[in-house]
Amino acid sequence: MHPAMEVLSASRRALVAALALTLTACPKAPSQTDGRDNPVGEPSGRPRVEVKSDATADAALAQARAESQANPDKKKAAEAYLAVRKAYPATTAGQDALYNAGVLFFEAKDYANARKTFNELIFENPLYDQAEDAKHKMALSAMEVGAYRDAYQTLTSLAERAEGAQKDQLLKEAARAAEGAGLYSQALSTAVKEAGDAQTPEDKAAAVAKVEKLVEGRADFLDVARAQEGLSPSNPAWPVLQFKLARIYYHLRDWTRLEETLQRFLRDAPDSSFAPQAKELLARATRRVEVRPRTVAVLLPMTGRYQPIGEAVLRGVKLGLQGSDIELVVKDTQGDVNKTGQAMEQLAFDDGAIAALGPLLVDDTKRAALLAEELQVPLLTLSRQEGITDIGPYVFRNMLTNSAQARAIADYAMNVKGYKKFAVLYPNIPYGVELANEFWDEVVARGGAVRGAEAYTHDQTTFTSEAKRLVGRYYLEDRGDYAEAVRDVQGENITDAYRRRKAMEKARSGVDPIIDFEGLFIPDDWRRVSLVTPALAVEDIVTNACDPRDLERIRKTTGKKELKTVTLFGTNQWSSPKGRSGLPELLERGGKFVTCSVYVDGFFVDSQRPATQKFVKSYRDAYKEGGRDPGLLEAIGYDSARMVRQVLDKQRPNTRAAMREAMAGLKDFDGATGRTSFNDKREADKQLFLLSVDNKGVNEINVDKEKAAVRGSGS
Questions:
Q1: Which of 13-22, 209-218, 290-299 holds the top average pLDDT?
Q2: pTM of this prediction?
Q3: Which of 131, 185, 394, 486 has its CA 20 to 30 A from that of 304?
Q4: Prior bond to 359 cis, omega within 30?
């Protein structure tokens, strides 16, 4: 078993084990009393005050009672009782006064004072004649002021000693307190018992509704398991709990327990309102292993803002499957993570797809990859997201990544061109930062060095400062040759301000650039590159010297016999559409300043590779009306579809596991984007397209031929 599968299976086993352990060994809730029939958190023990009867106190109590009956303001009437209590604290009349004050506060809905008064009474004399009523009202008051835990403890204690209708009422109130306190396990247990004890259809329906409310988003799966343990199917709440457990097992992908739970549900509660859903869920679980060996799904944004890229990939996919009996199921993700998740489940459970292609977008791909691993559906993603195949062995990727581009450029620059020193000029956005770091790492890993790195904002249009910094012309005060030139000007003792300013300008312009790098990497869009390169030329960074004749002209123009030239390197973002002249717009806008540059891409429409030429011809024939040449997205879609087609045609897998094994073993697939093999991380390894720019356009570099020439020269 693959290590990632072991981790996933272990996590599921741990959840199931925890559930089983809870079902068999959950400790009972701690006793709600302290051993003397007093709720936890309530006063206990002997009376704190030895009360006695007192005639004067009795008379005062009678007077207070008369006043309270005549006074409609219950709070003021309560104060009359408290006055008796204060005057005669250690008397039976004082305690009666305290109780009556609490009742009046309770009836007046002054729950804070009611709770305080009853608590004082019970603390002082837990054996008071009206102690049970006082505790009940104290608990209800506690619930009203939000002290739900105290209320729950008191109410459950009272319910243990009650019978009949009184017990039922106390349990209902305890359930409400438990829910308020977040004690959903206790609330659920009480609600389930209430459902079992209900005598009328109305009471049963109300109790079941309460159970449903608790199991949907309140009680967790262990609470549900506890409540269901040993419960008789005759309890009206049983179907609710059993079906909830089934849904839990579905989300855990515990197929065995899911099927067992649903089968028992349908056997013991066939007439439940949940029965149709249970039947569908059971059928869905069964269908997970039912595969249509010639059905393949593709997940793409076919509507919404990303529709154009989805359509581009789909054109390539359809072309790759043209003439095949493979059934293609298209799932529209709309660029929405939730819809992507739904699509993955549909293609696995409902469509029986043996494999899936896509998605493209980062978040969609993560969701799809996680579900592909859970459902064990081979997924060939078309995303650039780094590390996506680490999710598990059912996840493959066929797409140009930033790391692959950086690796290809560094390999060509160092192993073919022989460069060792580089600089990086990059946009301060995630794309630019990631590629700058990837390239830097690749250079260092090969024994090279990055001499300078400058960032610029994504919407910048002038790059004078960045170019000056790269060649040491920005902070001139730190340079000794500039300081010496300034001293010479000052030594001339020029009095005329204009002449002195001109002399200083000459001193500044006379400082030679420090070009201690052979290659400059610019990971940005072709539009920005066409603005960057002229700024480099202003600072005497010679980038267009691959032609000896151009180099000679530059020498004559500058008067410098020794020129340090720099090769510009870029990414596939340098690829541009053709302009009015028929040349790429990169060249039309950048002119001579971008010639001699080299950039990398995952596809080149004018490549001389036979497989690429075959694809381009087929695409042009198939989509004549569109009048557009294919790009990377179309080529990737085409190759991905043909990879799956080749595996299905040659190896005929009839299970998803067999399909995964066959795809993992795919080697030397000759595609439009290069000869491809899946490595041990299920990443598509292929030789990318290295492209050079000259004044006639863009040409593919024959890397193998150049490497052979380097080896032949012994350099």
A1: 290-299
A2: 0.68
A3: 394
A4: yes
Tokens 């209590």 correspond to 85
**226 vs 474 pLDDT, higher one:** 226
| First CA to last CA distance, the chain | 47
If asked whether residues 230 and 124 sit together in one domain, one would say yes
Return d(Cα 598, Cα 588) in angstroms, integer: 16
pLDDT confidence tier of residue 4, bands split at 50, 70 and 90: very low
Assigned domain for 37 exists: no
How far is it, in rounded angstroms, from Cα 614 to Cα 311? Answer: 21
Phi, psi (rounded to 5 degrees) for 580: -65, -30
Those residues whose C-beta lies under 8 Å from the C-beta of residue 420, and which sit 6 or more positions away, are 414, 447, 448, 449, 518
CA distance 516 to 84: 98
The pLDDT tens digits of the residues spanning 120-141 come to 998 888 888 898 999 999 999 9
Q: What is the C-alpha separation between 641 and 659, in angstroms, rounded?
A: 14
Given 451, 482, 512, the domain boundary residue is 512
345 and 260 within one domain: no
Number of structural domains, the chain? 3
Among 463, 487, 512, the domain-final residue is 512
State which H helix or E strand residue 33 sits in.
none
Between CA 295 and CA 302, with CA 299 as vertex, the angle to 5 degrees is: 120
| 329 domain-assigned | yes
Range of the domain at 479: 474-512
Burial of 120 (0-12, 13-18, 19+ CB in 10 A): middle
498 with 389, same domain?
Answer: no
The angle at the Cα of 480, spanning 475 to 484, to the nearest 5 degrees, equals 110
Please give the structure tokens belonging to residue 368.
């799809």
CATH of the domain at 370: 3.40.50.2300
Length of the chain: 715
